[in-house]
Amino acid sequence: MKLRNTIILLILFFGLLGYYLFYEKKQPTREEKEEKQKVIFELDPLKVEEIQLEYSDTLVKLIRNINLWEIEKPFKCAGDQEQINSLISNSDTLKAERILGPDSNLAKYGLVNPYLKFSLRLSGEGGYNTILIGDKNPTRQFRFAKLADGDIIFLINSSIAENQLKKSLFDLRNKKLVSIEESEIKTVKVEQYNKQNFFAIERNQKGQFELINPFKLELDNSKTQSFVSNISNIQVKEFIVSNPSSFQPYGLHKPDIVVRLFSSKEPVDTVTLFFGKIDDEKNGVYAKVEDDTNVVLLYKTAFDNVSKSIDDLRIRKIFNFIRDNIFSITVEKGEKSYYFEVDTLGNWSIKPEAEFQEWKIKDIANEIPGLEIKRFVKEDTLSLETYGLLKPKVKMNVTLKDNTTYKMFIGNDAGPMHLAAAAGVPVIEISCHPKDGSLSHPNFILEQLICQELLLLVKILLNRSIH
To answer: Which residues in the chain come in under a pLDDT of 50?
Structure first.
């Protein structure tokens, strides 16, 4: 009998325990219930179809068109998707910090003509979920608020109301000028009428941009990616006017610069940007999309970016090897010739034997891989004599451990370079001035050992074009 009673008690115990674990324990606590009661909008963000913001004399109405938000009022235009989705997210987490209770005297809370009337409409619902936000409370940390269809007055965080819910038309408007995604841009054509400079770059199969016009040329990948990215992500600083009677006041009737973008997908999308006058007072430049009537002001940095020349995008580094790959260096100056060779232990020797400090040779070897072009002066070899490169003062051969040889011709100092630049004739120049003014700097040592000129003109021949 006792055993039977014990079994019955055990069954009841485990039954009650199971009820507690699977039912009672899942019930929200009093604190959780109170927090839930503070939530103002219980909504699924994906079901929000319409948003309205009313404040002062402003009404902004947003509607969802499939998966994209558009501005319906005060006029139709594309919306800033990130800003609007953030607005919905902020409203979803909005809560009453303190509930004051019912009160019909709305004027004392600033709720007759509220600071902000914020409304949401969900799919499948005919009416709006609306909150009225009024004056600040005496501590200035909160604002009085109530639901449009309720009589309970409560407090909400004033910072959330002012910074996260009350958005201007500019905040909610699409400010991205280029509709093609950066990763989909295939070709960029730049027409700089103010400089009579025109060029085009195109993304190759490796995903890197190369020059295709006026000639073919490998470019600096980092520089071109930054160049294209900056164009793709141009942001409007200010919306100036829509459909003006004339574009002339903004310099857009004959733009200084035109940038044409072409997508990689089929059919090809194109976007053409016009850049007009610079407004120094506003620190910006007037611009527009070719088939759009809106004049906008862009940040001055956008104009600086599209003003770049081909040379700004070119590879400046002359050699594509590191010092440890150098096997030998040959220097010829007039009738003198020196041959430097490094052994497997990193020790340098010179032929013919001469008094030479090994540390100076090492400095030369260190500096050669890092040499960069200072200015591109000429694209062909028709005027080498002008620059002393037909009969160079110094010849240098750098042979690598894989037997690849780089040949460097060093000509006159940069006097003719200045004349060439004045005549608009392009050449490659490298400056050997000490970077910090110190005569012990390796660049100065290289100059002293090899050419004794202050400025060097360099022409690289490695079975390839100067390009």
So the answer is: 422-423, 434-435, 437-467
Please give the pLDDT value at position 380.
61
Q: How far apart are CA 289 and CA 296, in angstroms?
A: 9
Torsional class of 377: left (φ above 0), alpha (ψ -120 to 50), beta (otherwise): alpha
Around 305, how many Cα atoms within 13 Å sit in the side-chain half-sphere?
Answer: 20
For residues 368 and 326, give the distance between their C-alpha atoms in angstroms, rounded to a whole number: 10
> Using CA atoms, how far apart are residues 320 and 50, in angstroms rounded to an integer?
58
pLDDT of res. 426? 56
Q: Which fold has domain 36-172?
A: Immunoglobulin-like (2.60.40)
Q: What are phi and psi of 289, to 5 degrees?
A: -85, 140
Nearest to 71 by CA among 56, 86, 53: 53
Domain boundaries, the chain: 36-172, 182-313, 323-461
| CATH of segment(s) 182-313 | 2.60.40
The whole model's pTM is what? 0.73
| Backbone phi and psi for residue 89, each to the nearest 5 degrees, phi listed first | -60, -40
